[in-house]
Specification:
InterPro entries: YjhX_toxin (IPR018654). The protein is of the alpha+beta class. It has one domain. It is built from three helices and five strands; from the N terminus they run αβββαββα.
Length: about 80
């Protein structure tokens, strides 16, 4: 699967324990996203269109109203990096 560099960056952060917090507007529609690393830092590369692409490809998922995390398909699609755990 072809994944762009910004998508790779976000998936690496999620693979290392980060989460994506989605802000929902009226009707439950996602209006904004915030990608937080496991250290509590914010990744500015995560935009709403990028989030929607990752969700459409089923590389991230959320269960029970919790923040979005990387899915099994996302872990298989992300390229290996030496700093991944």
């Amino acid at each position: 699967m072809n994944i762009s560099k910004p998508e790779q960056r976000v998936l690496h952060v999620l693979a290392q324990g980060g989460v994506i917090r989605a802000d929902r507007g009226p009707g439950g529609k996602v209006t904004g996203v915030l990608c937080v690393t496991r250290d509590g830092l914010v990744l500015e590369d995560c935009t709403l269109p990028l989030f929607q692409r990752l969700r459409a490809r089923r590389l991230i998922h959320s269960a029970g109203g919790r923040p979005y995390r990387i899915s099994r398909a996302g872990r298989l699609a992300v390229r290996a990096q030496p700093d991944n755990r």
